């Protein structure tokens, strides 16, 4: 993460000066912001804002839709700590873009969006309904690993609020998925969660 942050940050000034395709600036800003978030960099919010402005100025393209949705969701992560209204607005706008995005970055857009929805909604039924829509999109794109990650995370969240039977049902299903994918450590994790 540190290396990605340094490399992306090092090309920002030349790209800001107009040396190259604006899409590269948007990508560099996004990588800087995303890595900065994990590194808890103090300028992450400002970089995300710049990425949003840059991406909004670009012509329509599936990659632009995906990156813009990801940037909005990254911004929503920051805003979720301040209040649900702004975060929810960003999630809604990003969700509309996801439908136009096609296959570019779709698995990670869906993963981030579902994590944020759980942060701003507390109704597990609503989250479960939205999860099913995400799983359908991921299944159509054959993104089985991210499907497993989403379902596992949802099961963990259900377990934490006492919905043990519902979580156990998901664990039984995801054990099979992870086994089919050959991901032995994930199978072990799901077995551990089911035993818990």
Question: How is this structure best described in words?
Answer:
The protein is mainly alpha-helical and 196 residues long. The chain has eleven helices and no strands. The protein is elongated and about 55 Å long.
Q: The biggest beta sheet, please?
A: none
In terms of structural class, how would the helical and strand content be classed?
A: mainly alpha
Helix-strand pattern, N to C?
A: HHHHHHHHHHH
Rg, Cα atoms, Å: 18 Å
Shape label: elongated
Strand tally? 0
Low-confidence stretches: none
Helix percent band: over 70%
Quaternary state reads single chain
Short characterization:
This protein has helices spanning 2-10, 12-16, 22-39, 44-56, 62-80, 84-101, 106-120, 124-140, 144-160, 164-181, 184-195.
Helix and strand arrangement:
Layout: H1 2-10, H2 12-16, H3 22-39, H4 44-56, H5 62-80, H6 84-101, H7 106-120, H8 124-140, H9 144-160, H10 164-181, H11 184-195
Helix pairs in contact: 1-3, 3-4, 3-5, 4-5, 5-6, 5-7, 6-7, 7-8, 7-9, 8-9, 9-10, 10-11
Looking at this protein, list some descriptive labels:
196 residues; mainly alpha; 11 helices
